[in-house]
TrEMBL record, chain A:
<dbReference type="GO" id="GO:0005656">
    <property type="term" value="C:nuclear pre-replicative complex"/>
</dbReference>
<dbReference type="InterPro" id="IPR036322">
    <property type="entry name" value="WD40_repeat_dom_sf"/>
</dbReference>
<dbReference type="GO" id="GO:0006261">
    <property type="term" value="P:DNA-templated DNA replication"/>
</dbReference>
<dbReference type="GO" id="GO:0120330">
    <property type="term" value="C:rixosome complex"/>
</dbReference>
<dbReference type="InterPro" id="IPR015943">
    <property type="entry name" value="WD40/YVTN_repeat-like_dom_sf"/>
</dbReference>
<comment type="subunit">
    <text>Component of the RIX1 complex, composed of IPI1, RIX1/IPI2 and IPI3 in a 1:2:2 stoichiometry. The complex interacts (via RIX1) with MDN1 (via its hexameric AAA ATPase ring) and the pre-60S ribosome particles.</text>
</comment>
<keyword id="KW-0853">WD repeat</keyword>
<keyword id="KW-0677">Repeat</keyword>
<dbReference type="GO" id="GO:0006364">
    <property type="term" value="P:rRNA processing"/>
</dbReference>
UniProtKB/TrEMBL annotation, chain B:
<feature type="region of interest" description="Disordered">
    <location>
        <begin position="657"/>
        <end position="692"/>
    </location>
</feature>
<protein>
    <recommendedName>
        <fullName>Pre-rRNA-processing protein RIX1 N-terminal domain-containing protein</fullName>
    </recommendedName>
</protein>
<feature type="compositionally biased region" description="Low complexity">
    <location>
        <begin position="664"/>
        <end position="677"/>
    </location>
</feature>
<dbReference type="Pfam" id="PF08167">
    <property type="entry name" value="RIX1"/>
</dbReference>
<feature type="domain" description="Pre-rRNA-processing protein RIX1 N-terminal">
    <location>
        <begin position="7"/>
        <end position="186"/>
    </location>
</feature>
<dbReference type="InterPro" id="IPR012583">
    <property type="entry name" value="RIX1_N"/>
</dbReference>
<dbReference type="InterPro" id="IPR016024">
    <property type="entry name" value="ARM-type_fold"/>
</dbReference>
<feature type="compositionally biased region" description="Acidic residues">
    <location>
        <begin position="678"/>
        <end position="692"/>
    </location>
</feature>
């Protein structure tokens, strides 16, 4: 197994983005799988449909109303799609019960939320979601959540977005400064929790069923990013002073010595100074570069972090040491996305037969007549399993077929002949025939003689 | 193994011996040659039985790569082709003997197995398969009417993977398939064969072109859409379709049929005066075309533009043809004919549902913009009646045609499985009522209603004395479907409290009767209603006594073990102290002995368990396996192991003293790093605090 990290940055406009690269590389070895040229976006402004094969990297260019699409294995953009306005963040919503990408959700600088269907390019909806730029979008089972610079979090139900409902499912307004990042727990739909961080130095956890603010953590510095342990045992927050703080979500209570969940019931918890650095990663602290993105590895033992200087590090959670330093980017790191896959299954080059582009994203909102002619771009396949001889069932078929060649009745209907007898009989017949013929010939001669004589 | 001698052996035993790889590996070269040559002799024998034996031997031998790679594979292929070409000496094809058919099928199996084995291996394909392909295809086309299932299967496979070689045979294959179908005989085959025929027809129609396959796919698809439309339009001859505005609008939105439209299938010849049953021809043709359209979405294609909109519209139109909304024209007076038309409409509805049913699995979320319109059109199929100004589901009519209702439920399930938290319950309420009606056992209506006998019954007393035997219930499959529907309602929809209680009542009553309802009960447990005052937990616990999930509910736990956690600093100090002590004292520290006393017997086992889990984690993370990292990983992951143990956790939280000690034991010793004692199964790594 291997884990691949896609990372890119906000880029360096001073050099006309000639140094702005996006990379795809392993975090467990020094292998670099791919690089993408001029691949820069606002923070959270890049989305991937997956890694390898026909998967695409979709990048909303910073400062331009453009989306660039990269094919895996190709360095330069395969497709450039003009949009109505500059997009600040992107997220992909997968098909229900599937890994395939379904919706492309984009947050714009104006605060609007655009939702495209990736299979057809139809612009399904545009919602006036925020008063200022949308900073982050996250999707989970049936919900799309966006956080904006207007310090609001807006939650939409996907079904409402597809129908013409204008009312969001929920709006949370507890933060006082721009929302910088969001993490969502998955699971049963009534267990979903939402974690948001903001430059107002707080981490807030909401329950999406009861819509209650469950816990608030107060940090000592503005928070730039958040990532959660896969099992939600702790969360990691990236602060503007360049440190990453680990917040345990379960702790032993000092009185009873029994583990219990931290927070709940709207508690406000102030994170104490961690002078011993037991819950703090200081690896980015030199130069006090804010930690702009964090991602947690598959097993939860490593985190990947990127800072505003373009530095990307793989850190070990237990020792807080740097395990690996990845190739540095130009400008603040804007995306860190981890993908786990079987080792050595992703090649460096593009598939020859790959579909190279995505359907062009429409700029006009979908209408009823468009839906009547709704067309999706698809490559159909029929699933076939690899051929393997199952000996047992094969032998069973052999047995069942064998019965057609056997006679089980006990009645033998074949005619048996004794060859010797036949031969002697034949001889006899031949003999008698010869004698008969000779007699006949003699008789005939006699007859003809008599006939001649009578004449 | 020579000639008839093979009959003296147990053939199955011979096959299983030959299938063992050691048999082939240990055989000498001459023996192998001999064996292969014998098999070839059997295959090319004139005796049908020997051919059959040969085909089976060829399959088994080709499981070994040594033989597949030898020159015999090509010989086997040649012999098999000849066997097929000779049609096993069947003289009268109308009544072929079974053993000959079995042999032909077996030869097809052997061919397909060998081809499958060769495929993907470039040199073998080039040397062996490609030169033989045309004759293979030719011979298969010869026997397609004798062994259709196997032959079409193999031909489809070849068409899919070797379309270039297949090109010259395309039209012949198509003719053979259409010949099999006959002019109206699509219903005469079993589902599996129908499916294969349609699949091959669909793939044939576009895959043999050299370029712009995707455009041809679209053209052909559109053609069949138009053809379907033209057949549906026949219904406007005897039903006033224009009374349903939505239906007309949808029909008009489909691509218009050009005047000089040439249908792919022979035009229908229907004379209602001759026999009203001829209407069924239309139903069968629509079913045929719809199946074909669905197959277009299930064969391998290049990237194409699939018109979901049209497909959904066809489905909705077919579902919408209903004599209640689009009445039968008045000039048709014959009662039988009117009834048959109404009956054919329900059959058409079923075809429509079948089409709609197939789409969610293929298109997934792309269908959701159409969800409401699809659900509302399926909703029209539920018969309703007006009682005191209220519209309620008509129980009698529901029971009269349960198949249609069940098909509707199935379609709803497939669509609702795409959503989370569906709230527009007005689209589902009628179907919930219908489902609840169908889930009840019932006494046959005729008997229940009146004792008046319409036919001369032998004894009506049975009804009075053995009433139980007259009660009919939904079949097992139908019950399964109902349960699935209830599950979808509970998990994916926000059902009103009263409806949810009704559903829960049915579920629990069924479960009490002993039905297998685990999934549904889980759903009831996991998705309680917001307004619910009482929990179903006690009942579910009683019904599923040994269930793991219920156990987790009764013994809730956190992702970590409830262990006593000494403040880290204190721990570090303690450890350092211990280390010093250890240096001084070579013997086990006193503390250790104490701990051993408190350690219960299960402790090592538990540790083993953890160890196992760690082993697994380690294996899956081969790439990450850096010695020091994985050691720490163990420490970090320690709590996760606890998830496996169920009862310990609860016990620990109540009587916290002992288990705490257990947990503490290894961690307290760990800094000593001594690889000793019973606990050494569980390695706790050393932490170098000094580094920090």
């Amino acid at each position: 197994m291997d884990e691949l990290l896609f990372y890119n940055s906000v880029g360096d406009p001073s050099k006309k983005h000639s140094t702005s690269f996006g990379f795809l590389s392993s975090i467990h070895s020094s292998q670099q799988i791919g690089q993408y040229r001029q691949c820069y976006s606002n923070i959270n402004g890049t989305a991937l449909t997956g890694v390898g094969g026909e998967h695409k990297v979709i990048v909303a260019c910073k400062g331009k109303a453009l989306i660039q699409v990269y094919l895996h294995g190709k360095e330069s953009p395969e497709q450039t799609i003009p949009l109505p306005e500059e997009i600040s963040c992107l997220e992909i919503f997968p098909h229900p019960d599937s890994q395939r990408s379904w919706l492309l959700v984009a947050g714009a600088v104006s605060g609007r939320l655009y939702v495209w269907e990736l299979d057809s390019g139809l612009l399904l909806t545009v919602k006036e979601s925020h008063y200022q730029s949308v900073g982050v979008i996250k999707c989970t089972k049936g919900y799309i959540v966006s956080g904006g610079a207007d310090s609001r979090i807006v939650v939409w139900k996907v079904l409402d977005i597809l129908s013409d409902s204008h009312k969001p499912y929920a709006i949370f307004t507890d933060h006082t400064l721009p929302i910088t990042d969001i993490a969502i727990s998955s699971g049963l739909i009534n267990d979903i929790k939402l974690w948001s961080v903001s430059t107002d130095q707080t981490v807030r956890c909401y329950d999406l069923t009861s819509l209650a603010l469950v816990t608030t953590f107060v940090a000592q510095h503005p928070i730039q990013s958040i990532a959660a342990d896969p099992a939600f045992r702790c969360v990691y927050i990236g602060l503007t002073n360049g440190t990453i703080r680990m917040i345990h979500l379960f702790q032993a209570s000092p009185q009873t010595q029994i583990w219990e969940q931290v927070g709940g019931f709207g508690k406000i918890i102030t994170l104490k100074d961690d002078t011993d650095l037991r819950e703090t990663f200081t690896n980015h602290q030199i130069g006090e570069n804010p930690v702009t993105k964090i991602a947690v590895s598959f097993d939860g033992t490593q985190i990947v972090s990127g800072d505003s200087n373009g530095k990307v590090l793989v850190l070990d959670v237990a020792t807080k040491q740097t395990v690996r330093t990845l190739k540095q980017l130009a400008g603040p790191v804007s995306t860190l996305k981890l993908f786990r896959l079987e080792a050595n299954t992703v090649s460096n080059s593009a598939l020859k037969t790959a579909v190279r582009t995505i359907p062009v994203l429409k700029r006009n909102l979908v209408e009823d007549s468009d839906l009547q002619k709704h067309e999706v771009h698809r490559k159909f396949t029929d699933f076939e399993s690899l051929q393997q001889l199952d000996l047992e069932s094969f032998l069973d078929t052999v047995k069942s077929e064998q019965r057609w060649f056997h006679n089980f009745t006990g009645v033998d209907s074949t005619v048996k002949q004794n060859k010797e007898n036949v031969r002697s009989e034949l001889e006899e017949l031949k003999e008698s025939y010869a004698s008969m013929k000779s007699k006949y010939d003699a008789l005939y001669d006699e007859h003809s003689k008599l006939l001649m004589n009578s004449k | 193994m020579e000639g008839a001698k093979i009959e003296e052996l147990d053939f199955v035993y011979l096959l299983s011996t030959l299938a063992r790889s050691s048999t082939i590996l240990n055989a000498s070269k001459t023996d192998l040659n001999h064996l292969c040559a014998r098999v070839n002799n059997y295959l090319s024998s004139n005796n049908v039985r020997y051919r059959w034996i040969g085909s089976k031997l060829a399959i088994v031998l080709n499981t070994h790569i040594e033989i597949t790679a030898s020159e015999y594979t090509s010989k086997y292929l040649g012999a098999l082709i000849k066997a097929l070409e000779s049609k096993c000496f069947i003289k009268d094809e109308a009544s072929a003997p079974v053993y000959a058919i079995v042999t032909l099928e077996s030869c097809c199996d052997a061919l397909s197995f060998i081809i499958g084995n060769i495929r993907g291996k470039h040199a073998l394909t080039r040397e062996v398969l490609t030169p033989k392909l045309p004759s293979i295809i030719g011979s298969l086309l010869e026997i397609i009417h004798l062994v259709p299932l196997k032959a079409i299967d193999l031909l489809y496979d070849l068409l899919k993977n070797n379309s270039t070689t297949f090109r010259p045979f395309g039209s012949k294959f198509e003719r053979a398939l259409l010949g099999l179908l006959g002019s109206d005989g699509f219903t005469k085959f079993e589902y599996q064969l129908q499916h294969k025929i349609f699949k091959s027809l669909a793939l044939l129609s576009f895959s043999l072109t050299k370029n712009s396959t995707s455009e041809l796919w679209r053209t052909k698809f559109n053609h069949y859409v138009q053809e379907t439309k033209s057949v549906i339009q026949i219904y406007s001859e005897f039903m006033s379709l224009d009374e349903d505005e939505d239906l007309m609008q949808q029909l008009n939105a489909l691509p218009s049929v050009p005047e000089k439209f040439e249908p792919s299938f022979p035009p229908l010849d229907i004379d209602l005066n001759e026999s009203p049953l001829q209407i069924m021809k239309i139903v069968s043709r629509i079913g045929f075309l719809v199946n074909l359209l669905v197959e277009f979405l299930q064969v391998p294609t290049p990237q194409v533009k699939a018109p979901i909109g049209y497909l959904l519209m066809i489905g909705q139109i077919l579902v919408g043809i209903n004599h209640r909304f689009t009445p039968i024209k008045r000039d048709i007076r014959d009662v039988t004919l009117r009834q048959i038309i109404a009956q054919s409409a329900t059959l058409i509805n079923e075809v429509g549902l079948k089409l709609l049913n197939a789409l969610p699995g293929i298109f997934g979320g792309d269908l959701l913009p159409h969800l409401n319109s699809v659900l509302s059109s399926i909703d029209t199929l539920i018969p309703v009646s007006r009682v005191n100004g209220r519209i309620i589901v008509d129980e009698e009519s529901v029971l009269d045609n349960p198949e249609l209702i069940f098909a509707g439920l199935k379609t709803r399930i497939n669509f609702l499985e795409l959503v989370e938290g569906f709230t527009n319950m007005s689209l589902l309420e009628k179907s919930i009522d219908a489902a609840l009606i169908l889930s009840k056992p019932r006494v046959p209506q005729g008997l229940a209603k009146s004792s008046e006998q319409r036919l001369k019954n032998a004894s009506i007393s049975d009804l009075l004395s053995d009433q139980k035997t007259f009660i009919t219930e939904a079949t097992e499959d139908q019950k399964k479907l109902l349960r699935q529907y209830f599950k979808v309602l509970l998990t994916r929809c926000v059902v009103s409290y009263s409806k949810q209680s009704e559903i829960l009542r049915v579920i629990i009553l069924d479960a009490v009767k002993g039905a297998e309802m685990k999934e549904l009960l889980h759903a009831a447990l996991l998705f309680p209603h917001k307004e619910a005052n009482a929990s179903v937990l006690p009942m579910v616990k009683q019904l599923l006594d040994d269930d793991e999930l219920v156990s987790v509910f009764l013994n809730p736990r956190l992702p970590l073990l409830p262990t006593k956690r000494v403040g880290d600093q204190a721990l570090i100090e303690e450890r350092e102290q211990e280390r010093e002590e250890e240096k001084k004292d070579e013997e086990r520290p006193v503390k250790k002995i104490k701990i051993e006393e408190t350690v219960p017997v299960e402790a090592p086992a538990k540790d083993n368990l953890k160890e196992d889990i760690f082993e697994e984690t380690k294996e899956t993370l081969e790439t990450t396996s850096k010695e020091d990292v994985s050691d720490y990983e163990k420490m970090i992951f320690k709590p996760v192991g606890s998830l496996v143990e169920s009862t310990d956790v609860a016990r620990a939280s109540v009587e916290d003293v002992k288990p705490v000690a257990v947990e503490q034991a290894p961690s307290a010793q760990s800094p000593s790093g001594s690889p000793s004692g019973d606990e050494s199964d569980f390695e706790i790594p050393e932490i170098d605090i000094d580094d920090d």
